[in-house]
Amino acid sequence: MATLRHPKVFFPLMRNSCEQMRIVSFLKLVGVIAIAWIFDPSTTSLAQEKTPKAKPAPTSNAVQADKNEDRTTFLRIKKSAGGEPESLQVAIARYSFDEGEFKGAYVDLIGAVHVGSKEYYRELNKRFKTYDAMLYELVADPSANKPNKRAERGGINPVGALQTGMKDFLDLKFQLDEVDYSPANFVHADISGEDFVEDMKQRGDSFLGLFARMMGAGLAAQNSKKGEAQQSEMLLAILAKDTMKLRRVMADQFESMDSQMAGMAHKDGKSTLLTERNTKAFQVMEKEMRSGKKKLAIFYGAGHLLDMHERLLRDYKTTQTKLEWLDAWPLK
After folding, report:
1. What pLDDT is stored for residue 215 in this prediction?
2. Measured between alpha carbons, how far is 170 from 244 in angstroms, rounded to an integer?
3. What's the rounded Cα separation, in Å, for the pair 248 and 329?
4. Nearest to 328 by CA among 304, 309, 301, 308
5. More confident residue, 148 or 62
């Protein structure tokens, strides 16, 4: 059977409806998994304990929030005046502590995406140096070494292979290859692998159950009329090797990420992957502020930030004082 080749992946030419159905099913699975690891980098940590250059991002990488934004979101597609997609943007939101024990301090929530442009990661690395404490996610023992580049980690695993294939498809860079975790202000703010498993066990949850909910949430979105149209567009982009078109289709899917992340909650309304790891991040945040730190940031997957936003406003009585957007993926 004839094939069309794209780096890391082969797609057979469709000759009948059965082949079409198989490819559509594959695309659904890719979409679900992509949402999980692109916006929640901890999946890499659990699995391993850890090309051509993309077009540069717009020169004005940081822009103020759109005053007409009608919902709380930490991921959006920036569009031109004519409605054409220009970039996938991730938010940086600042929360000031106006009263109580931590008065005078602030924390920035910095959304992370697993793959992005080199310019996006370069901008993040510059900003990370400005904080007293830079809290980061990594499901690992707190005493473990900080994340390092893939070449230094050595080896590869199935999750790593998926990540490599996806970044090549999208012609983007991989987070752990670009972010510099070595500065002294970087602080581990996540649970260990053992704690992850134990938390799920205590609540009667399991990896199988988590994966099933993840699949259910993703497939529910993709089975909508819009989702079906996106699958067709994705397939055409892959067959045409149209990297920019593929980015646009996937970026459009990711805008609904918040509802899909919420769908991963267990029957008790909590999720080890999301809410319980956020709890740990805030415990570390409090510890750092009690040590005298005033300028903090939490660098976590964009899917975590809505829950963190709500907790900061509700539990810590903070005020959101600033919102910026960084271009993570050029879309033109």
Report:
1. 62
2. 7
3. 9
4. 301
5. 148
Residues 296, 132: contact at Cβ < 8 Å? yes
**Residue bearing the bigger pLDDT, 165 or 68:** 165
**Of 98 and 51, the one with more pLDDT:** 98
Helices (H), ranges, 76-117: none
Q: How far apart are CA 288 and CA 293, in angstroms?
A: 6
d(Cα 311, Cα 303) in Å, to the nearest integer?
14
C-beta contacts of 212-220 below 8 A and 24+ residues apart = 213/263, 213/264, 213/265, 213/266, 214/32, 214/36, 214/264, 215/32, 216/263, 217/32, 217/259, 217/260, 217/261, 217/262, 217/263, 217/264, 218/28, 218/31, 218/32, 218/35, 218/260, 219/28, 219/32, 220/263
Sequence spans of domains, the chain: 15-330
| pTM of the complete model | 0.73
**Rounded-to-integer distance, Cα 317 and Cα 99, Å:** 8
Q: Whole-angstrom Cα distance, residue 288 to residue 296?
A: 8
How high is the pLDDT of residue 214? 60
Angle between helices 17-38 and 207-222 (to 10 degrees): 120
pLDDT at 284 over 50: yes
CB-based burial of residue 73 (10 Å sphere; 0-12 exposed, 13-18 middle, 19+ buried)? Answer: middle
